[in-house]
Amino acid sequence: MIPTIYSRVYIINHKNIFYQTVNNPNNKMKKILFLIIALSALGITTSNAQEKADKYTIGGSFNFAVSAMDSNENMITSTNFRIAPEFGYFITDKIKVGGEIGYAYSSDLHTIAITPNIAYYQPIIDKLYYTPQLNISGGVEINPVNEIGIFSISLNLAQFEYMPTSNFGISTSLINLSYSLIDWTYNRFDLGLLNSLSIGFHYYF
Fold first, then answer.
1. Dihedral sign (CA 67, 70, 71, 74)
2. DSSP secondary structure string, the chain?
3. CA-CA distances (angstroms) from residue 195 to 152, 174, 176, 183, 188?
4. 67 in Cβ contact with 80 (< 8 Å)
5. Sequence-distant (≥ 6) Cβ neighbours of residue 195 within 8 angstroms
6. Which of 78, 183, 186, 200 is deepest in the core (most CB within 10 A)?
7. pLDDT, tens digit, for every residue of 100-121?
8. CA angle at residue 169 from 168 to 174, to 5 degrees?
9. What residues form DSSP beta bridges with 156?
10. Bridge partners, 190 (sequence order)
11. Which residue(s) pair with 67 in the sheet?
12. 2: exposed, middle or buried (C-beta count within 10 Å: 0-12, 13-18, 19+)?
Protein backbone atom coordinates (compact mmCIF):
# COMPACT_ATOMS: atom_id res chain seq x y z
CA MET A 1 0.00 0.00 0.00
CA ILE A 2 1.34 3.44 -1.00
CA PRO A 3 0.69 6.05 1.68
CA THR A 4 -1.26 9.13 0.63
CA ILE A 5 0.45 12.48 1.23
CA TYR A 6 -1.76 15.33 2.38
CA SER A 7 -1.01 18.99 1.80
CA ARG A 8 -2.75 21.97 3.30
CA VAL A 9 -4.07 24.74 1.07
CA TYR A 10 -3.90 28.05 2.91
CA ILE A 11 -6.56 30.71 2.43
CA ILE A 12 -5.30 34.03 3.76
CA ASN A 13 -7.89 36.55 4.98
CA HIS A 14 -6.63 39.60 6.92
CA LYS A 15 -5.11 38.29 10.16
CA ASN A 16 -6.74 34.86 10.04
CA ILE A 17 -5.35 31.92 8.13
CA PHE A 18 -7.75 29.07 7.44
CA TYR A 19 -6.83 25.81 5.80
CA GLN A 20 -8.46 22.73 4.40
CA THR A 21 -6.95 19.29 3.83
CA VAL A 22 -7.06 17.73 0.34
CA ASN A 23 -5.68 14.56 -1.18
CA ASN A 24 -2.55 15.32 -3.18
CA PRO A 25 0.25 12.93 -4.16
CA ASN A 26 2.78 15.77 -4.56
CA ASN A 27 5.99 15.73 -2.52
CA LYS A 28 6.66 17.62 0.69
CA MET A 29 8.21 20.56 -1.14
CA LYS A 30 4.74 21.90 -1.92
CA LYS A 31 3.80 21.80 1.76
CA ILE A 32 6.94 23.71 2.69
CA LEU A 33 6.22 26.32 -0.01
CA PHE A 34 2.70 26.91 1.30
CA LEU A 35 4.05 27.21 4.85
CA ILE A 36 6.64 29.81 3.80
CA ILE A 37 3.97 31.87 2.00
CA ALA A 38 1.64 31.69 5.02
CA LEU A 39 4.34 32.72 7.48
CA SER A 40 5.39 35.58 5.21
CA ALA A 41 1.81 36.83 5.10
CA LEU A 42 1.61 36.63 8.88
CA GLY A 43 4.79 38.64 9.19
CA ILE A 44 3.47 41.34 6.85
CA THR A 45 0.13 41.53 8.69
CA THR A 46 1.81 41.71 12.08
CA SER A 47 4.11 44.48 10.93
CA ASN A 48 1.06 46.50 9.90
CA ALA A 49 0.03 46.66 13.57
CA GLN A 50 2.48 49.53 13.82
CA GLU A 51 4.78 50.03 16.77
CA LYS A 52 4.03 53.34 18.48
CA ALA A 53 6.00 53.34 21.73
CA ASP A 54 8.05 56.55 22.14
CA LYS A 55 6.28 58.17 19.19
CA TYR A 56 4.72 61.63 19.21
CA THR A 57 1.56 62.82 17.49
CA ILE A 58 0.19 66.21 16.55
CA GLY A 59 -3.19 66.90 15.05
CA GLY A 60 -6.66 67.91 16.13
CA SER A 61 -10.38 67.36 15.84
CA PHE A 62 -13.22 69.34 14.30
CA ASN A 63 -16.99 69.16 14.34
CA PHE A 64 -19.79 71.31 13.01
CA ALA A 65 -23.56 70.92 13.38
CA VAL A 66 -26.71 72.93 12.78
CA SER A 67 -29.85 72.02 14.73
CA ALA A 68 -33.38 73.38 14.57
CA MET A 69 -36.00 73.43 17.36
CA ASP A 70 -39.66 74.43 17.19
CA SER A 71 -40.48 76.69 20.15
CA ASN A 72 -43.91 78.35 20.42
CA GLU A 73 -44.42 77.98 16.67
CA ASN A 74 -41.08 79.70 16.03
CA MET A 75 -38.21 77.79 14.47
CA ILE A 76 -34.98 78.36 16.40
CA THR A 77 -31.74 77.44 14.66
CA SER A 78 -28.60 76.65 16.62
CA THR A 79 -25.08 76.45 15.17
CA ASN A 80 -22.46 74.37 16.99
CA PHE A 81 -18.78 74.49 16.11
CA ARG A 82 -15.66 73.12 17.79
CA ILE A 83 -11.96 72.90 16.93
CA ALA A 84 -9.22 71.44 19.14
CA PRO A 85 -5.49 71.17 18.26
CA GLU A 86 -3.89 68.21 20.05
CA PHE A 87 -0.47 66.85 21.03
CA GLY A 88 0.28 63.35 22.33
CA TYR A 89 2.99 60.87 23.30
CA PHE A 90 2.84 57.04 23.31
CA ILE A 91 4.16 55.59 26.55
CA THR A 92 3.52 52.07 25.12
CA ASP A 93 2.41 50.72 21.74
CA LYS A 94 -1.23 50.99 22.87
CA ILE A 95 -1.40 53.84 25.38
CA LYS A 96 -1.20 57.51 24.40
CA VAL A 97 -1.20 60.44 26.83
CA GLY A 98 -1.71 63.97 25.60
CA GLY A 99 -3.72 67.12 25.72
CA GLU A 100 -5.63 69.61 23.63
CA ILE A 101 -6.69 73.25 23.65
CA GLY A 102 -10.24 73.56 22.40
CA TYR A 103 -12.51 76.34 21.29
CA ALA A 104 -16.26 75.83 20.88
CA TYR A 105 -19.15 78.04 19.82
CA SER A 106 -22.85 77.37 20.35
CA SER A 107 -25.67 79.94 20.26
CA ASP A 108 -23.67 82.99 21.43
CA LEU A 109 -21.81 80.86 23.96
CA HIS A 110 -18.02 80.64 23.59
CA THR A 111 -16.02 77.99 25.41
CA ILE A 112 -12.25 77.73 25.80
CA ALA A 113 -10.83 74.69 27.58
CA ILE A 114 -7.60 72.80 28.23
CA THR A 115 -8.09 69.03 28.19
CA PRO A 116 -5.51 66.40 29.27
CA ASN A 117 -6.46 62.96 27.94
CA ILE A 118 -5.42 59.33 27.71
CA ALA A 119 -6.33 56.97 24.87
CA TYR A 120 -6.02 53.22 24.30
CA TYR A 121 -5.24 51.91 20.80
CA GLN A 122 -6.62 48.42 20.12
CA PRO A 123 -6.13 47.01 16.59
CA ILE A 124 -9.34 45.66 15.02
CA ILE A 125 -8.27 44.81 11.49
CA ASP A 126 -5.36 45.94 9.36
CA LYS A 127 -4.90 49.75 9.79
CA LEU A 128 -8.13 50.21 11.79
CA TYR A 129 -8.01 50.86 15.56
CA TYR A 130 -10.57 51.16 18.34
CA THR A 131 -9.37 54.13 20.45
CA PRO A 132 -11.53 54.85 23.53
CA GLN A 133 -10.37 58.01 25.27
CA LEU A 134 -10.77 59.58 28.72
CA ASN A 135 -10.74 63.39 28.94
CA ILE A 136 -10.52 65.77 31.92
CA SER A 137 -11.27 69.36 30.99
CA GLY A 138 -11.15 72.75 32.67
CA GLY A 139 -12.00 76.08 31.11
CA VAL A 140 -14.32 79.04 30.85
CA GLU A 141 -17.68 79.67 29.16
CA ILE A 142 -18.25 83.21 27.88
CA ASN A 143 -21.83 84.36 27.23
CA PRO A 144 -23.22 87.84 26.49
CA VAL A 145 -23.76 88.46 30.22
CA ASN A 146 -20.78 87.01 32.08
CA GLU A 147 -18.05 84.39 32.25
CA ILE A 148 -18.34 81.15 34.22
CA GLY A 149 -15.91 78.37 35.02
CA ILE A 150 -16.54 74.83 33.83
CA PHE A 151 -15.05 71.45 34.72
CA SER A 152 -15.90 68.22 32.91
CA ILE A 153 -14.97 64.54 32.60
CA SER A 154 -15.85 62.73 29.40
CA LEU A 155 -15.34 59.32 27.83
CA ASN A 156 -15.26 58.72 24.07
CA LEU A 157 -16.87 55.28 24.06
CA ALA A 158 -17.03 54.75 20.29
CA GLN A 159 -13.90 56.32 18.83
CA PHE A 160 -12.03 54.81 15.89
CA GLU A 161 -8.95 55.67 13.86
CA TYR A 162 -7.92 54.55 10.38
CA MET A 163 -4.21 54.76 9.53
CA PRO A 164 -3.59 54.50 5.75
CA THR A 165 0.13 54.99 6.46
CA SER A 166 2.31 54.64 9.55
CA ASN A 167 2.51 58.43 9.91
CA PHE A 168 -1.05 59.56 9.27
CA GLY A 169 -4.42 58.77 10.87
CA ILE A 170 -8.04 59.82 10.43
CA SER A 171 -10.26 59.47 13.50
CA THR A 172 -13.94 59.77 14.32
CA SER A 173 -15.88 59.79 17.58
CA LEU A 174 -19.47 58.53 17.51
CA ILE A 175 -20.60 58.16 21.14
CA ASN A 176 -19.55 60.36 24.08
CA LEU A 177 -20.51 60.21 27.75
CA SER A 178 -19.77 63.31 29.83
CA TYR A 179 -20.30 64.95 33.22
CA SER A 180 -19.94 68.72 33.65
CA LEU A 181 -19.81 70.98 36.71
CA ILE A 182 -20.75 74.51 35.66
CA ASP A 183 -19.73 77.48 37.80
CA TRP A 184 -19.06 74.94 40.60
CA THR A 185 -22.83 74.83 41.13
CA TYR A 186 -24.75 73.08 38.35
CA ASN A 187 -24.31 69.45 37.37
CA ARG A 188 -24.96 68.24 33.86
CA PHE A 189 -24.82 64.76 32.33
CA ASP A 190 -24.73 64.24 28.56
CA LEU A 191 -24.80 61.18 26.35
CA GLY A 192 -24.03 62.03 22.74
CA LEU A 193 -25.17 59.42 20.22
CA LEU A 194 -24.00 60.22 16.68
CA ASN A 195 -25.06 63.86 17.09
CA SER A 196 -21.64 64.45 18.68
CA LEU A 197 -19.82 63.15 15.60
CA SER A 198 -16.35 64.64 15.18
CA ILE A 199 -13.53 64.16 12.69
CA GLY A 200 -9.84 64.29 13.63
CA PHE A 201 -6.47 64.07 11.89
CA HIS A 202 -3.15 62.94 13.39
CA TYR A 203 0.44 62.94 12.23
CA TYR A 204 2.83 60.48 13.94
CA PHE A 205 6.57 60.95 14.21
1. positive
2. -PPPPEEEEEEEETTEEEEEEEE----HHHHHHHHHHHHHHHHHHHHHS---TT-EEEEEEEEEEEEEEEETTEEEEEEEEEEEEEEEEESSSSEEEEEEEEEEEETTEEEEEEEEEEEE-EEEETTEEE--EEEEEEEEEE-SS-EEEEEEEEEEEEEEEEEEETTEEEEEEEEEEEEEEETTTEEEEEEEEEEEEEEEEEEE-
3. 19, 8, 10, 25, 17
4. yes
5. 65, 67
6. 200
7. 999 998 878 899 999 999 999 9
8. 170
9. 133, 176
10. 178
11. 78
12. exposed
How much is the pTM?
0.66
Task: Report the candidate in 58, 127, 63 with the shortest Cα–Cα distance to residue 96.
Answer: 58
